[in-house]
Amino acid sequence: VNNSDIKFLYILLKDRDPKTNISHREMPNFNDHKKFVLSKPYSKWHIIYYKLTKIGSIYISKQNEIGINLKKQYDLESIKKRVLNEIISMNPNTNYFANVSSKNKKGIKFFEKNGWNLIQKKFEIPKIKKGLNQK
Long-range CB contacts (< 8 A, 24+ apart) of 66-72? Predict the structure, then answer.
């Protein structure tokens, strides 16, 4: 990923189904997005091409978490599987992880079908609640 990819990545983020988001609740503005990209938040971050067309991105976080984001018309299991296998073969490691929103049934199904194991569930208290006893 480089500076020329920032606009594409923003459009990709805007077009993503909000239920798949785990890193933000509200869509960031373009300037905040640009700062994020320029901060080099991931160990590896690649644009996915089909022929000469940008169709998505894939990253490996500093915690070895893999994230895949494809344009809707290219969001096919066969493409996801291919890019996932390719990034793992390019960056061999014994432990990779994928954070998937509990609302992202398609993402959960994809990783389960491809041999990934569920290792944790994560809970969050809504901002409006102050403590455990409040309803």
Answer: 66/96, 66/97, 66/98, 67/98, 67/99, 69/12, 69/13, 69/16, 71/12, 71/15, 72/15
Closest to 110 in 3D by CA, of 101, 40, 16: 101
What's the pTM value of the predicted model, to 2 decimals? 0.84
Q: Which two tokens stand for residue 22?
A: 């785990």
Amino acid at 101: S
Q: Please report, as a single letter, which amino acid is at residue 50.
A: Y
Strand ranges in 20-88 using DSSP code E only, listed in sequence order: 42-50, 53-61, 66-70
- Residue pair 80/110 in contact by the 8 Å Cβ criterion: yes
What digits encode the pLDDT tens for the residues 4-17? Answer: 999 999 999 999 88
Q: Which residues of the chain have pLDDT under 50?
A: none
- Rg, C-alpha atoms of the chain: 16
Q: Are 100 and 113 in contact (CB under 8 A)?
A: no
Model pLDDT, residue 21: 76
